[in-house]
Design a protein that fits this description.
three-stranded mixed beta sheet, alpha+beta
Length: 77
């Protein structure tokens, strides 16, 4: 993610995704955190449809460039 347009694209796809309760997009950290009753792999695939590079990060880990993360209730991936 390099701009607010990228952030908007990610927000649009996550806002339409069933089971997503909330999400936070951090442009500076290049990180997306998703909470809800969703499968982490499904979140990764959905965000990938925006053309952005995606990967998982561990909680507490510094975010790699263009990372996306999913937190599926009740576990975190």
């Amino acid at each position: 993610m390099t701009c607010e347009g990228c952030v908007g694209a990610v927000k649009r796809v996550l806002g339409r995704m069933e089971g997503v309760e909330s999400f936070d997009v951090d442009l500076q950290e290049q990180k997306v955190t998703v909470k809800g009753n969703v499968k982490p792999d499904a979140v990764l695939q959905t965000v990938s449809k925006t053309g952005k590079k995606t990967s998982f990060w561990e909680q507490g880990e510094a975010a790699p460039a263009a990372a996306a993360a999913a937190s599926a209730a009740p576990t975190t991936a």
